[in-house]
Amino acid sequence: MTEQLDELADLIRDERLRELRVALDELHIGDVVDFLERLGVKDRAVTFRLLPKDTAVEVFDMLDQALQHEIIEGLKDGEVAHFFESLEPDDRVRLMDEMPASVARKMLRHLDPRERSLTNIVLGYPSGTIGRQMSPEFVAIPEHWTVRQAMEKVRRAGTDAETIYTLPVVDRQRLLKGVVSLRDLLTNDDEQIVEALMTEADSVDADHDAEDAARRCADRKHLAMPVTDKEHRVVGIFTVDDALDILERAESEDAARHGGAEPLHRPYLSTPVLTIMRSRVVWLLVLAVGATLTVQVLDIFESTLEQVVALALFVPLLIGTGGNTGNQAATTVTRALALGDITTRDVFKVLWREVRVGLTLGSVLGALGFVLVGLWGPGDGNPWAIAAVIGLTLVSMCTLAASAGGMMPILGKKLGADPAVFANPFISTFVDATGLIVYFMIARAVLGL
Amino acid sequence: MTEQLDELADLIRDERLRELRVALDELHIGDVVDFLERLGVKDRAVTFRLLPKDTAVEVFDMLDQALQHEIIEGLKDGEVAHFFESLEPDDRVRLMDEMPASVARKMLRHLDPRERSLTNIVLGYPSGTIGRQMSPEFVAIPEHWTVRQAMEKVRRAGTDAETIYTLPVVDRQRLLKGVVSLRDLLTNDDEQIVEALMTEADSVDADHDAEDAARRCADRKHLAMPVTDKEHRVVGIFTVDDALDILERAESEDAARHGGAEPLHRPYLSTPVLTIMRSRVVWLLVLAVGATLTVQVLDIFESTLEQVVALALFVPLLIGTGGNTGNQAATTVTRALALGDITTRDVFKVLWREVRVGLTLGSVLGALGFVLVGLWGPGDGNPWAIAAVIGLTLVSMCTLAASAGGMMPILGKKLGADPAVFANPFISTFVDATGLIVYFMIARAVLGL
């Protein structure tokens, strides 16, 4: 497939656009999207203009918001309105979040009144909430209706609604009473009352955190979840495919921050080199500033280093192992937080586990290090003294690193930050500095310096 | 919520089981699952036995396979058969993968013939393929049928089928011709021919890699995808909630390996400390062995170190920065591979991008390092010489680290391994060793040692 897409890219480069148009016609729509995501801004604009109108709308709907925004920028006003109108209200709001407020307002004005008011409902919730991601186009069924009545409404409203497979059931005040699946309506008798078929609704408040709601939707395998207001009236519905988008975005963010960079929020090959560089440079600088601590620590112990230069040989090994132990713990805990397996209230449970894990790991590595350095290490006649220093440092460092690594993501979340921000690269820097202090203190004590 | 769950745990500890039973009755089923996932093996077995029979079956279906297996182990044979029978064929196969083959075979023998033959279909595909994860219970519609006939079949088969919302359309040879959504059937005329309503099917071969299929299902927002055999006959269906499970598992694996540990495949709090320790110790040892390279490199340059001890002060800072740069690149590329934004064929595109990014980052950091060390650094009268060493090392190290970091995951994938295995911790170890060589070579050249 990639090979084929590369051949298409060659057609752009050689400006053989007529051939490109024919080739695009033969691709599955998902492959056209994959192709556009591999191109730079200009090539993408050129290619997009070659698509037949219907295909263009479908393709536009499937692109990342960042790429939609770039395409919009390259189009004339009339065309813009057309694509903007083609989006669902929730997707429209997400695209608007990418654009300058003035442009977004202008585009909103061009919408027909119904679409505009639907869009405004979603716009009414703060970004980051599930209200901002839900669809306001749902089909609610009164609880006293029969299956026949319900099916009638589903058939009528079927084409516009976000989903008709999970239907909120409401009372006369439009308060949410439960949900009924289309499957249950279809496999039951026409005269059955909906109330008898509905199940307890797993709903979510419109002000609820979007990622958390998406995780719940995915964990509990709902095709859709009703979204309610403070009075428990249904205001929207939130489907599993939107949950997938939110989770994928959240996981890309976690992954990037774990690696010590800001997320790109767009496909790698479509991102200019300078944008990639910018996503990394601030983190690198912050971490490098943090790492100057290690220079200061070593500076303090410079006399110890001068007396026993052999101690310097083990510095990368020791801080590397400490960093690895810390990363392991931080990664496990960050992931458990993201999956909802633990919450910030579990801080002491986590600490107690990580202390034990760190101590066990440290004992294994420390014993091994002691024997190996004792047998083959440097030490000018007394290798076992340096071996003891290495062994003891590994035990303390692993315990320290695992505990700190387990605590940092929880601390980060408590402070309202993304847990991943406080995780891996910071752990390494922290463990580097504190670990070195431990190392030289133990060395001074054991070697009597 | 966590608070409430902790109170329930107190009830177990105090053996107030009658109160626990009442409290469990009042929880939403999803919360019962969350609660069980926070308990140790014994407490979970105790609690599970308190659940009413219907709830127990539902709860059992929602647990991780590893926890299902532990519960099964604690039950009597008759009970086992009951729970085993309650699972869908695809979930049953996943649970069987957790159990010793002899136990699995025994349980298979207790199933009724229909369930057993369905399970055997799924068992027929190698693990890791989508055939192993699909459901063999689908509703296929012949293309020449009317909407009325199709709806009749959906109503009849509706309760057993995995999904009725996406329906494969087949010809007389049962070859896949397209898919039709239940929504389209419902919103069209009863006498319409299905062929006129169906859309192109995005199907997947049963032997296809499960994670790749799941990613496609999620990316293209399908509620379900038909699974076909070599002759393009429909053999099963694969729904978005199974895709979610596969992706969550894959992402947990990636996250764990990024952090240099093996995935737990079970909730953190329910995992014994020794199991956590085992998931980490092998990686730590392998990485520590790799890190002994740094000891050897430093040993070779020990005379240089003895002449200018100040060089030792910058070792953690330099290798830390190199490691961070490498991690950033590795993380971005691993994620792009996972999302399908790039493939292994893009290796030179990635290399060329990362060389440029690394060089830019290195220049910024190098210039900064040169000035700062020159102004305030050590150096016994000639700080600018050491400053030059640091600056030049940062430029080369960042370029090297970004390129190696970008290449490793692709190399890993080409070799058929999980890209994440070859990523971050290995990068750090590699960059530590090579970076030190670069550092001391530059130092010798610049300082004329």
UniProtKB/TrEMBL annotation, chains A, B:
Keyword Magnesium part of the UniProt annotation: yes
Annotated CBS domain residues: 134-195, 197-253
Record SUPFAM superfamilies: CBS-domain pair, MgtE membrane domain-like, MgtE N-terminal domain-like
Transmembrane region(s): 281-301, 357-378, 384-408, 420-442
Pfam families: CBS, MgtE, MgtE_N
Origin superkingdom: Bacteria
Compartments in which it is found: Cell membrane; Membrane
UniProt-recorded name of the protein: Magnesium transporter MgtE
Organism: Nesterenkonia massiliensis
